Every structure is written in C-alpha cells, then in structure tokens.
Amino acid sequence: MQVETIKSASEDSLSYSNNDEDVHNEIEISIDSIENIIRNESFLIKIVIEHEDLLLGESDTIKINSSYKNLIKVYPIDFKISLSYIPNNTSSIAPLVSTPILIKIFEILGDNGSSKPNIESKDNETANERSTSELESSRKLYGMCNIDMLPIILGEITFSEKLLVQSPSYTWDQNIVSWENLSRISITVQQDEIKILEDIDFNFLSITIESMYNLPDNFTNSMNYKCGTILYPHKNVKESCIIFDDGTWTNISNVEKMKSWRSLQDVQSRARLSKYKIDSDFNNIKNDFKSLNLKTIIEPKNKRIKWNVMNRSFLDKKNIDRLKDRLKKYKYWPFEVIVKENVDPSETKRESTEEVIYQFYADISQLIFPGQKKVRVLSQIHMQSLAEMKEKTGLEISIFSNKSLEDCELQSDEIPSTSDCSVYGENGKPVYILVEFELYKTLFPARILEDFTKATEILKNKPKPNKPIYLYTPDLVHDQYIKCIKQLVDVLEESYRDDLTRFKQYLHETGKYLSMQSTLKNKIINLLDQKFPLNSADCFSTKNQDFIVSCYSYLVEQMHIALNTKLDVRFGDEYIDPENPDELWIRAEEAYEYKHYDKANKLLIKIISNDRSNASSWVKYGIYLLKISNNDEAIECCREAIRLNSRHKIALLMYGILLAMNENYSEAEIFIKAVTLFYPRFSEGWVILHLLYVKTEYYPGIDITLQLAEKCLKDRIPDKDTMEILEKEPIAWSTNLCSENRIFILTAVLLLKLNLYNFAGLALTQELSLRQKSVEFLYFFSVNAYLNRNYEIALDYLNQAETIIGTDYSIAALLGHVFYEFGDMNETIKYYEIVDKLYERPENIHLVHLRMGFYFISNRQYERARNIFSRACKQASTCKIWLGFGISNYHLEYYEECEAALIEANRIDDEDPEVWAYLCLLSISLHRYDEFTQCYRQTVKNNLKNDELWRLITRTMDTFNYTTPFVFDDPSKKCTCTAMSWAKQ
Known about the structure:
Layout: E1 4-7, E2 13-15, E3 25-35, E4 41-51, E5 54-58, E6 61-65, E7 74-85, H1 90-98, E8 101-109, E9 116-117, H2 122-127, H3 132-135, E10 138-147, H4 150-153, E11 158-164, E12 184-191, E13 203-213, E14 223-230, H5 237-240, E15 241-250, E16 258-261, E17 273-277, E18 285-286, H6 294-297, E19 304-315, H7 317-329, E20 332-341, E21 356-363, E22 374-380, E23 382-383, H8 386-393, H9 405-410, E24 432-439, H10 448-461, H11 474-498, H12 503-510, H13 512-531, H14 542-566, H15 581-593, H16 597-610, H17 615-627, H18 631-644, H19 649-661, H20 665-678, H21 683-696, H22 699-714, H23 724-727, H24 743-753, H25 757-770, H26 775-787, H27 791-805, H28 809-822, H29 825-837, H30 846-858, H31 862-875, H32 879-891, H33 895-908, H34 913-925, H35 929-941, H36 947-959, H37 976-984
Helix pairs in contact: 10-20, 11-13, 11-14, 15-16, 16-17, 17-18, 18-19, 19-20, 20-21, 21-22, 21-24, 24-25, 24-26, 25-26, 26-27, 27-28, 28-29, 29-30, 30-31, 30-32, 31-32, 32-33, 32-34, 33-34, 34-35, 34-36, 36-37
C-alpha cells in the first residue's frame, strides 16, 4: 500500500447561517486522487480546503511513495468535506458566487527540512516505518488550486474536475515548473437534489478591470495602483465598495489573458486565476472616441497598468431592480483609481507619500438593450472632481478618501468644475482604461420573435377594405377572353389524349363540346358589348353587316395570339418578353422620368397582375408609390407583401421605416429587429436599426447596433435574397462612387433605391459626423436632393464634388439631369456629351442617351440622333429607345430600318400613340393605305396628344391625297373629335 493514513484529522463543516430554524443543505467536496507527481522519493502531504479565509476542512496526513519508474500512477486520496448553506438565502449564497473554493496541499517535512529519497532496498523499507511524530515537525506549501462553485449554484447535482496544482508563488528563475510537470488532483462536487436558487429571481454581475493605457510620465513601476467602484449605491460607500488591488506596471505581452479572482488577490500564485479570459476582439469595445485607433492603443507591448481582475457578485430581485433603475437614470458607472508610491515596510522612518486619486465613468447603458448581457467600455481618466462624479453617476462620496461633495466645496483649493480635469499621457493624448461588465441573465430579455409573431398575426388578421364592385371595361373583358381561350386549350389537351380516335365524338358524348361552346359564347358577347357597342335600331344595316366581318377577324386574331402564347411559340435568341417584370420596371422608371405617371402606374400594376402571389411584386409597387409620395398606399403594399411572405427582407424593412416615419416607433422597432433576427449578417439592417435609435434617442441601442453592423460588414458575403431591382443601377443616378467599406454610404444607397429619402438623409448625416465632406457624401447627398426635387441644393453639392474629383461619369450625368429639370438644354447637352465621351463609364447610360437623342431630333439633327439611338438599342430595349431610332430613320428616309424599329417598339408597347403615329406616317410614305388605315385608327384610339405630330400626319395625308379613315365612335376615347378636326384641317 503506497498511500497510507498516518494521523486522523477532523473533517470540519462550515455554515453561513447561525439560525438553527433555517433548513440547511450541504455541498459535498471530495478530493478523489492526485497524479503526475514527478519525484523519486517518499513524502507526506496534507490537504486543506478554505473558503473566504475560513477553514472548511483538513485531511489526514497522507504518505506518497513516488518513483520515476511509474510517473503515470494515480494516487487515491478519498478526502471529503461538507459545506452547509441555506437554499434561497441571499447572505448564504452570495459568498459561494463571489469566491471560489481554495485548495492547498502542504508537504510535511522531516527534522532536517527535506524528504527522503526513494531507494529500493531493505534499508528504505525500514526508513518508511519511522514514527509519524518525527516526520511532522514542519511543513511547506506544495501547491494550490481553486474550484468555482457556479455549476452547483445553477442547479447541477454533481460535477467533476481535474485541476492543476499550481506552484506556491510566481517564479521566473531555475525553479520554475512547466504546466506539464505540475501535479493534478481530481475533485468531485455534489449536492442534494434541491436546487440552491430554485424559487428566487437572481442574477450575477461580473466587473473586470482590464488595463490602463497611454500612461503619463509619472506612472512608473515603483508606484502602487488600486481601482475601486461601488456595487450597491443605496448603501454606505464603505460597505458596498469593491477594491481591485495590485495594479501592475508592465510592457510585457500577456499571452494567456486569464482573469484572476478579486477575492483571491492575496494569493501570490497562479491559483488566483479563473477560467475566464480577456476578450481579444476589439470590435466589441464601446469606444466613444471615434478618431481613436484601438489597435494602436491596446498594443500588447505598450506600457500599461495591468489588473485583469474579475469580481462576481450575486444580485437578488431587489438589487436587480435597483440596478435597472440606476442604469435608466445614470448611464455611467463610477470608478476611482488611487496612485501612490510603494513604501518598503522596513523603512519605518520614511514618511508616507501623498496619494493621488483619479476617476473615470464607464458608459454601460448597453446593458439596458434587450438581450444584451455584456459590455466592454473604453473610458477616459480624469482628475478627481466629485461635482462631475455626482453629475455623471450620482455618487457624492469618494470611494478611497470618503470625502463628500460638501467637504470638498468647503476647501478653498477645490478645482472649478469648468476646468479640464482630463489626464494626458506622454504623447499628449488622453489616458484610457478598459473595463468589462457581464451579467448572467439579461436585464431586459429580447422578445424579437414573440413581438414579431404577434405583430404579423395582427397584420394578417386585419380586415381588408371593402373594394367597390367594378363594371366591365373593354380591357377587362379582353383579358377574360384571352384567359378563356387558354383555359379551353387546357381542356382540349386533356380530352384528346384520352381518346384520339374518337376525339370529336368524345367531346359530344361527355358534353364538353357544348360546355365550351357556351363558355366561349358568353365571353364573346361580353367582349362585343363592351368593346364594340352597337345600336340595336341599326342591327340589320349594311354598315353593321360589314362590321361583323371586322369583329370576326378581330376575334380570330386574338385567339391566335392567345394560342401562340399558350403553346409557347419560340422566338429568336434576341427576343425579350415585354411583360418581364424587369422590363416593366425599367419602362416604368423611364415613364416616371418623362412625367408620364399614369403610364408608370399602369406598368407596375401589370407586374402585380402577372404574379399576385409574389411578395416582391407588391414591394416594387410600394417603392414606386414612395417615389410619388403616396406613403399610405405604400404601407398597404408592404402589408400585403408581408402577408404573402412574413420573412421578406425588403418588405419588413420598408414597413418598419414607414411606421417610424409615422412616429409609430414601437412597432417600427419590432419589424426592423425582425430583419436583423432573420438576416443577422445583413449589415444595412443593423445600420437602419441604429438610425431608428438615433432618431428616437435610445442611447443603449445606438452603439451596440453600430458595432454589430461594422462586424457584419467585415464578414460580408454576397446576398442571395436581394431583389433584382436593388442589384441594378437606377437610370437617373449611379452607385459607381459607393465604397464597400463605408457602412453609412452603403445604407444610404439602399435607402435611396427604396425611395426612403428621410432615412437616407439621416444615414448621410451620420456619415458626415464621422468624416469630413467626402466625394461620396457630396454625391449621394445631391442624389437625395435631386430625388426630392430640391435641384438648387443638388447643384450646389454636385459643384463641390466636381471641384474635388473633377469630371466623373456619375457627377457629370447627374449635373446634366439637374440642368434638364431647370430647362437649360445647352448645359444639359454639354454634360451629356461629356458623359458620352468618357472612357471610364458604364456601357448602359440609358437616360442620358434617351434625352440626348430626342434633343437632336427636336433640333432636326437626325444623323446624330440616329447614332445615339443605334448605340442605346444595344444596351437597353425599351419602346422609347426604339421609337427614337425609328423617328431618326424616318426623317433620314431609311424606311426599312425605320419599319423594323417601329415594329419592335410596337411589340414592346402596343398602346404608345406616338409609335402608331409614326407607323401611320411610314405607311403613307410606303403607299400602304390599308396599313395606314389601321395605324390611324390605333393612333386615335390611344389618344395622341402631340399637336405637332398631328399636323405632320395631316400634311403628309394631303401630300399623298389620303382621305381620313372611318373611325368607330368610341365614347371612352375623348380625342376622336380632336383627331377628326385635325384631319379635316
């Protein structure tokens, strides 16, 4: 037996209450074994367990026979002690939270102060039988370690750990022992099944003083540094103060970055270290000094005062409420630092040196933010001023000197409150100190998902407004007719596959033939009644008999179109579907720039009608409604999009911002927070939440949201959930100057694309607060002003940007657009031509080419216009582009190219009256009277309002002796009389 019990020792128990009526429970701490003893001798050990300098128990004297031949041997110990506590009692539990259990191992020495070598001989066996009284004449500390009781406090029944037995003291000489050669003990901690904190509301507050940086000249390694704060402001300062001793001047890099226990500050060993580490991430530090580069200040080899000491305190329900109230009233937490010169105790004749007290305030308001448990704060050191301390934190008494504010006011040498109390380092910059606050549970739990679910349920259950019953219109019945043809084709396809040989008979037998006949008949009747109304009195006249033939041709033609669409007749590779949502969006933007608002609205409604179940279609329409300042309907579009897709990023974002613009900030926060919950790496979402907090002056959330946004920006990945229109360039301005590392500029660009100019301006204001007026800021601020139609402001900022960067595509193009709105076409064309000639510009400058081309047409410079439009057609395919190309070719008498361009324009938009007008002119020039007649009727039908173009048509008709074609009287078209009057002239 190599481990022997030599002498018995009583196993003491400790209780933190003297009240016999309280129900006590016990925590059992068991030292199971010791191992990794690198010695070749026999020696005696004794284990002592302490807590807060109180002895919990002392083991029997244990003999260890170690040898180099068996270094991996595990030596069983089986020493147990019991620690008594009162469940749910604050005074009983608080010491277990703040102070770990300290385990000391003593080595029992012989008379000569050393152990005997382990020599394998009969003499050695005789020596081992010496009396224990001779061996216990003295002892020395073999090693120490500590164990945190937090798992037991949080409800664990049992847990085990293997701890390193640290050396008794720090040493840097030949006696240093590497961690691989340190002994290890195995410990088991267990308790009864009753939980310690089962029935009470509690929390833990950990305060860590890390280091002080950028030191003054008089802060040397011969000084003593202490830091102090208070835990309970309602109590006496002496009772609630927490002192962090032994701040150390150093310039050595701290590799391990371990935190030490404040309650074990007297232990001069690594046994004082906890399992918690200093965070290495600088991005999570709350830094109010925007111009300060943290990496240069918190350099591992810089001179600093290092503490890295942690204090953990237990908070009951009352103290939790007091902490909440305090943070709501004062966002700063008070600290003091006392500096004095070290005095050798042996120098009794030397007078004590003067103490200097400094103070600082840590802004920990982020702990009020829901879901936030931790904050690291960089604070600036100031000279002591209790007046300023009271203003910032409410504390009136000094932590170290115990002087009150009233005492200081009576002294004549009191520093005026208006003086600068800041402390500066060697480089003339302020002295900083880094502290950390961490809670076990948040003060205000985050309820993002619960609040969002509730809000969306209310949104989905909200009754839709009763819509009026609309009568049939020509367009509606036309669409119904086309849809009916497509549905009947589906029925035919399903039918003939079942019985090809008896197809017609099958249709009659099943009654489908009669059903289709009846369905088609009803649709034809509705179409004819609404689109071609007839006078019943003239039903059998010759005029109406001819009209029936035209109707039949029209119905067959429309049927063929529907069949070709249904059966997927394939076009060439260059075919672009004009009903494509992207094409409709570009045409709508084009119409808006030319102030054809009804046409733009109609195109966007068509996007919704093509796919009503697509949330993005509603969002696109909402974006357009914001552009025309129709916020109420934009909100309804966002609501419909959220009903269809409750996680649609842009819909949630727009809806939240619109609610904020209506000053409904609580609901706005729910929806914007939902974006950050569903898309946590979406940096613009965090910035918009930051802007909301800036707007509402909610300071706890301002810094943390910006920190998260910057962190997401560094880890930015391509976003797969972004809408297509947000990835494309707007036609009126450019994102060419947008920097990928400027978080507020990126957010402003997104908001400008969404036409949320209020929040875009707020983002640009935040950008200006961080930096001077950069080119990016000037340009996007001018874009915001241009879209808000503040053209004077836009011109001013564009001129400033042009002065800095010179001629740039983005600036020159927007300058041209501004002068276009002023009506100054000379300046407009000047800048447009500069843009067109620039080498470094995008291929597609749609709006520039469009306005240049039509300007040249209006000035009869048809060759230049043709050149512009021929290049524009290769980049964008819109009706307006092809129309301009066709007009320029018509006037140059390139009729073949003109016809191809106008047909393409008509294919894209068959309701553009100018396209029909020029087709009418082209038909006259090519002597095609029948086509001229049809085009003329369509021109009248689509209500051409261009008087100059009407005059050109009538003059051309007179030149070729063309008579005015018969136009069906359509009461819905008010331009018929005007058109006929022009024809008569």
